[in-house]
Design goal:
Structural class of chain B: mainly beta
Strand content of chain B: over 45%
Structural class of chain A: mainly beta
Low-confidence stretches of chain A: none
Strand content of chain A: over 45%
Number of helices of chain B: 0
Order of helices and strands of chain B: EEEEEEEEEEE
Largest sheet of chain B: 7 strands, mixed
Oligomer: heterodimer
Helix content of chain A: under 10%
Radius of gyration of chain A: 14 Å
Shape of chain A: globular
Mean pLDDT of chain B: 93
Number of strands of chain B: 11
Largest interface: A-B, 25 and 20 residues
Radius of gyration of chain B: 13 Å
Distance between the termini of chain B: 37 Å
Number of strands of chain A: 11
Distance between the termini of chain A: 41 Å
Shape of chain B: globular
Largest sheet of chain A: 6 strands, mixed
Order of helices and strands of chain A: EEEEEEEEEEE
Mean pLDDT of chain A: 92
Chain lengths: 114, 114
């Protein structure tokens, strides 16, 4: 069964600090990996997407990395801001039986405090 | 601006009642999806549609149905609400196959079955 596991489950950091969120997956055959940000009471919004051949992708202060060999991804947030407080969800897609299947991780809840 | 809207945002219903959650998108996307989000679980796919008159079951489809009579709307019906269906429901739409292109999510409907 395809699985996407994220760590830590929750994290509290001081404003201005950096942090790194982890995502391990067992999805196969791999198609792409996406990181979403979900603010409280809102739907998820895509931050980055990476395919098999991409090692890193940046979106402002967010940088995602992918190691397809070890099936690991990380999301690094630089110089955190209060508005970064949200859940971050790792989503992995695979091609199974000729169509794409998407598996969501349970998310890391990040709280940035002043 | 194009958007995807869900209604109602909050709903309380009694066990055994039929409930319909609305989802309307103005992206003109062919693909629409319904997910539920529960504590300790990633978003799980309930039903999806790749176009008008097309509907497909997701991994947790029991007790739910959808119909697609036009491009803009994909209402989700709970035939006979059960307490296990208390959850936050998200509708999403995308231009391409699930995972291949960015999915845009609604703000969610919090459903409580008492």
């Amino acid at each position: 069964k395809n699985q996407v596991e994220q760590s830590p489950q929750s994290l509290i950091i001081l404003e201005g600090k950096n942090c790194t969120l982890q995502c391990n997956y067992t999805v196969s055959p791999f198609s792409n990996l996406r990181w979403y940000k979900q603010d409280t009471g809102r739907g998820p919004v895509s931050l980055t997407i990476m395919t098999f051949s991409e090692n890193t992708k940046s979106n402002g202060r967010y940088t995602a990395t992918l190691d397809a060999d070890t099936k690991q991804s990380s999301l690094h947030i630089t110089a955190s801001q209060l508005s970064d407080s949200a859940s971050y969800i790792c989503v992995v897609s695979d091609y199974s039986g000729g169509y794409q299947k998407v598996t969501f991780g349970t998310g890391t809840k990040l709280q940035v405090i002043p | 601006d194009a958007e995807i809207t869900q209604s109602p945002r909050h709903k309380i219903t009694e066990t055994g009642r039929q409930v319909t959650l609305a989802c309307h998108q103005t992206w003109n996307h062919n693909n629409m999806f319904w997910y539920r989000q529960d504590l300790g679980h990633g978003l799980r796919l309930i039903h999806y549609s790749y176009g008008v008159q097309d509907t497909n079951k997701g991994e947790v489809s029991d007790g739910y149905s959808v119909s697609r009579s036009n491009t803009e709307d994909l209402p989700l019906t709970l035939e006979s609400a059960a307490s296990s269906q208390t959850s936050v429901y998200f509708c999403a739409s995308s231009d391409g196959a699930a995972g291949d292109t960015e999915a845009f999510f609604g703000q969610g409907t919090r459903l409580t079955v008492v």
